[in-house]
Amino acid sequence: MTTMNVSLPDELKAFVDEQVDGGGYGSTSEFVRDLIRREQGRQQLRSLLLDGARSPVGPAVDDAYFASLRERMHSTA
Q: Do residues 23 and 31 touch, judged by C-beta distance below 8 A?
């Protein structure tokens, strides 16, 4: 594992300390790793949403669509 030093204003350091003390984190590093993982997930979700927005419009998703999916599932089982 690599070490990274981060400078924070007192106000942000106090916030981090509060999160560690009351938020179930074992250390400041654990809190920061959690924030980074959440940001990674947020960026992945954003990318997927943008990909979906750029993709062609698919079939209408209505009761008939779901009925056809169920039918396909039952015929392959």
A: yes
Per-residue pLDDT, 54:
96
Residue with tokens 């924030």: 35
> Which structural domain, as residue segments, surrounds residue 35?
9-56
Q: How far is CA 70 from CA 60, 73, 76, in A?
A: 16, 5, 10
Tokens coding 45:
């979700």
pTM more than 0.70? no
The reply to whether 70 falls in a domain is: no
Torsion sign (Cα): 43, 10, 27, 3: positive
Structural contact between residues 28 and 18, judged by C-beta atoms closer than 8 angstroms: no
Residue 63 lies in a domain: no
pLDDT in tens, 15-29: 999 999 998 899 999
